[in-house]
Amino acid sequence: MVLFQRANQRAKFQRTKPLVYILLALILVLFLFPVYWLVSVSLRTNGELFQFPPRWFPAQWTFQSYRDIVLSKEFLMFYRNTAVVAAGSSLLTILVSVLAGYGFSRFRFRGSHLLLVFFLSSQMFPAVTLLIGLYTLYSKLHLLNTLPALILAATTTALPFSIMMMKTFIDGIGGELEEAAEVDGATRLRALVHIILPLTKPGIMAVTIYTFLVAWDDFLFGMTLVRDLEMRTLSPGLSLTFLGEFNTDWSGATAAAVTATTPLVVLFLFLQRYMVEGLTAGGIKE
After folding, report:
1. What residues does the ABC transmembrane type-1 domain cover (predicted)?
2. Contact criterion met (CB below 8 Å) for 174 and 253
3. 3-state SS of 93-128?
4. Could you tell me which of 158, 156, 151 has the C-alpha nearest to residue 81?
5. pLDDT tens-digit profile of 13-30?
């Protein structure tokens, strides 16, 4: 009887498999169409964009927008600033999250759980609620209109989740290895560097990717905490360069968007294994 039911289930699944594949293909097209349209617009002239009815494919392919972007000093400046902010915030977040996650995981003190909840609760509030406090603090510290201000702001955004991720990951590592190292004369810091860090490589990679994405995509802090054009990052810089009050270079704006997001796509394609492993391995205990 059981074998007969399983055979019926397999037959039913074989009959519905084509419909499942068709549905998945439609969903894939639905999600990929905005990406296609973004790339398609970047390969057209501005005059062709306003034709009616709209063309699904460019009538005349042109890479002029990409040539203009590559030769633009402002775009390269935005790219450099964004890379500095993303790299700096990633390094700072890794340093703080590893130490904080290790402290929360290995040390038990009064109020530790409440403090961890306090860190995580900051993720409940939108970033715009932090702007007034950050702007006032940075103004008193003379950090406004500087790249360190953007690095600290991105770190502030990514740090709570990164601390929780590292704590959860270190919780899955038994303390016997550290105790054995201490018996052999190693200090706790040395045990952390030579034992814990190699075992938490997937978690560190996940924190790095997460923080890098947060810093690279930032618009709000880059628009508010920085005034000079030479200090702008990609998102606010491109919005001020291509989106004008009376005229908008849509082809140039989409080409800039494609060029700006390409590093993120490449980074995630090559490192997604570490991202998934870092997000899941910490929650699995043997």
Report:
1. 79-271
2. no
3. HHHHHHHHHHHHHHCCCCCHHHHHHHHHHHHHCCHH
4. 151
5. 566 777 878 888 899 888
